[in-house]
Amino acid sequence: MLAYYFQLGLLSLRRNPALTALMVMAIGFGVAASMITWSVFRAVSGNPIPGKSAQLFTPQVDGWGPQQNLDGEPAEALAYTDAIALMQAHQAKRQTLLYPVQLSVMPGGQRDLPLNVNGYAVTADFFSMFEVPFRYGSGWSVRDDAARASDVVISSELNQKLFGGADSVGRTLGLGGHDYRIVGVASHWNPRPRFYDLFSTSGFADEPDIYMVFNRALDLHMYTNGRNSCRGQLSFTNWTDYTQSNCVWITPWVELDSPAEVASYRSFLANHAADQQRAGRFNWAANVRLRDVMQWLDHEHVVPPESRIALAVALGFFLICLVNTIGLLLAKFMRRAGEIGVRRALGATRGEIYAQYLVEAGTVGLAGGVLGLLLTALGVSGVGILFQPEIARLARLDVSLVGLTFVVAILATVLAAFYPAWRAAHVQPAWQLKSS
C-alpha cells in the first residue's frame, strides 16, 4: 500500500502544479539555508581529536598578576621560564612545548629562489600525543631532543614540492642557512580547529610545512613567528633578556590519562606558581588553569559568533517555511474533501487516510530535498560572502550532508503534514456525499 500511496503522491504533484511548486520551493529554500549554515557550523565546532580530547590538557600559569592579566585569567601561553620549568619537571606521561617558526628553504634542483615555509618548533612527544600520521619515517626521539639534533619532519605537500613525493627520509634540507636531516614525512594532518595552537592562529590556518626540534630552535635564538604578548615596561635587546622577560609565546600540552593524574598535575602547577612567588618572581597568589581540548576550544571562543547567528537565522527561516507548508498542505488536502468522503464511505479507515496523505507529504519533501540539495551545493560555494575565507573553505558538500538534506526535508514535511492529514482523516463522509 505504501508503494501505491507513493504513486498517488507523484500523481498529486502534477495535479496542482502551482501549489506543488510553492511547497517544493518553501521546503527547498528552507532546507538549503539550514544545511549551508550547518555545514559551516559543523566544520568549526567539531572535536578535532575525538579519540584523545579528554586526555590532552594545556597548562596556564599567571605570570602577569591581577593588575595586568586577562580578567583574572592567566595568559593563553607561557613565558620561557615557566615553559622550561614545566618541561623539566616531567610530571606528565607525555608533554610538549611548541611555538610557530618561519624559515627559508635554500635554492636547489630547479628552484632558483628560496621558498618560505611555516611550521613549529616542537618536542618529540608532539607526534605521539597528537597522533600525527606519517607517510614516510617518523618523528625524532626524546634523546634527539636532549641532543638538540638538527632533525626535521616535513609535510607531504612540501615533500611533493621539493622531492616529487618520493621518500625523502635521510636526505638533507637547507633551512635558514643550516642543514637539517629529514626524519619523517607527515601525511596530510591539519586538525580543524587547530586546537594545539589557538594562541597564534584562529584555529583554521593552512597545514604546517615543517616541524623542527624545539631545543634546536632555542639554540639558534629563533624568535616566534606567531603571537608574542608582554606586559609592563620591558627593555630587552637580546635573546637572554627576551627569555627572562614576562613575554608569553610558548604553548604547552600534557597528556593525562585519569582524573587522579589531572588532579596531581593541577597541584603541581599550583606548587610551581607558589614557588615562583616565594622566589620573588611573582608577588601574587598562585593562579593556574588546566583545560582539556574541548574546554580550551570553548574558552578561546573558537566557534565564530556569526556562524551561530547564521544558523539560528536559517533555522528560523526554515520554521517559517514549514508554517507556510502546513497551510499549503491543508489547502491541498481539503480541496479533495469529496474524494476523501467517497473513500471513507467505501470502507477506508482513518489510518489509511493518514498513511496516504503523510506519504504524499513525504513525496513533496523528497522533491523539496532535491531542490534543497541543488541550492545547498550552490550556497556552499558562496559562503565566503558571510564568513572569512579560511572558514568558508571548510564548508563542503559531502555524503553525510547530502543524506542529512534529504532526511531533514522529508521528515520536516511529514511532520508539517500531521495537522492537514488529521483534518483530512476527520472529514465526515455523510456531509460530503450529501453535498455532492
From TrEMBL:
The keyword Transferase does not apply. The keyword Transmembrane applies. One of its GO terms (molecular function) is transmembrane transporter activity. Residues 313-429 form the ABC3 transporter permease C-terminal domain. The chain crosses the membrane at residues 20-41, 309-331, 364-387, 399-422. It is found in: Cell membrane. Residues 20-217 form the MacB-like periplasmic core domain. One of its GO terms (cellular component) is plasma membrane. It is a multi-pass membrane protein. Keywords: Cell membrane, Membrane, Transmembrane, Transmembrane helix. This is ABC-type antimicrobial peptide transport system, permease component. It comes from Rhodanobacter denitrificans. The lineage of its organism: Bacteria, Pseudomonadati, Pseudomonadota, Gammaproteobacteria, Lysobacterales.
